[in-house]
Amino acid sequence: MKRLLILAAALASGPALADRAPVAPPLVVYAAGSTTGALGAMLKRYSEESGQPVDLRTGPAGLMRERIEAGDKVDLFVSANTAHPERLHASGKAGPVALFARNRLCVTAQHEVGLTAANLLDRLLDPKVRIGTSTPGADPGGDYAQLLFEKADTVRPGATAALKGKARQVVGGRIETAPAAPVSAREAMAGRGVDVSIGYCSSRSTVPDTSVDKVEVPPELAIHPAYGTAILTTSGDPAREAAAGQLAMFLLSPAAQAMLTPYGFLPAVAPDAASEGTGE
């Protein structure tokens, strides 16, 4: 974790790369679905300022990593954990991993559940409350949910088995296209047959979704997701790698990092940042 913070700070504060003509075709960024709103806004600003077109494609980070390993042409990868880009780095497909952003874990609930921070674990353990999570392995969001379940045993012995036994994996198992029309969180949960879902405190929009209650997990259960980014080295084109490096420097710059906050993310570099982000 310390190495990631140092690398992120070095990239963000280092000398800017020389101005270059935009590369073509556009740079391709594969990223975790949870970054769609924030990263989309950041890339739009970057393209406007640099003239470099960027194509953003999002989905469960584990599945996006698998597509890169299978040969997809990608220039920059942003994952909801650090393990997936570290794996690409270890196999020689990506450069060193830098910390892109941090997040928190929240539980989203139908209003009828009556969820609060004080009763969060009680509501999750209620046999009548149906829990939805993302898919472990394919999506770091599912891995973080499993970490939450495991941590619950330190607060309530026996809670881990109960939570893992009743939770259903309802998203994150495949790369999906965006719905034709916006769907509220309440509608999405109802369609999946769940009363609560465990995910990130961040959002794809800067406008709160009032159709549901969203509660951050209390400190004794807190999980601290860390997002990693890496430049892909599989193109064999030094110009594209340099252009991806310039983009990465922008994403880690103070101006770009400030764009994370309205979407509920935390900037990459912060004092006393803890993380479970390296988990598979």
Characteristic terms for this protein:
single chain, 280 residues, 10 helices
Give the secondary structure arrangement, pairings included.
Blueprint: H1 2-13, E1 27-32, H2 36-50, E2 54-59, H3 61-69, E3 76-79, H4 83-90, E4 98-102, E5 105-109, H5 120-125, E6 131-134, H6 140-152, H7 159-166, E7 168-171, H8 185-192, E8 196-200, E9 213-216, E10 226-231, H9 238-251, H10 254-257, E11 266-267
Parallel strand pairs: 1-2, 1-3, 6-7, 6-8
Antiparallel strand pairs: 3-10, 4-10, 4-11, 5-8, 5-9
Rg, Cα atoms, Å: 19 Å
Question: How far apart are the termini?
Answer: 15 Å
Tally of DSSP β-strands: 11
Overall geometric form: elongated
Q: In this structure, how is the largest beta sheet organized? A: 6 strands, mixed
Overview of this structure, please?
This protein has helices at 2-13, 36-50, 61-69, 83-90, 120-125, 140-152, 159-166, 185-192, 238-251, 254-257; strands at residues 27-32, 54-59, 76-79, 98-102, 105-109, 131-134, 168-171, 196-200, 213-216, 226-231, 266-267. It is elongated and about 60 Å long. By secondary structure, the chain is of the alpha/beta class. It contains 10 helices and 11 strands. A 6-stranded mixed sheet has the order 2-1-3-10-4-11, sandwiched between helices.
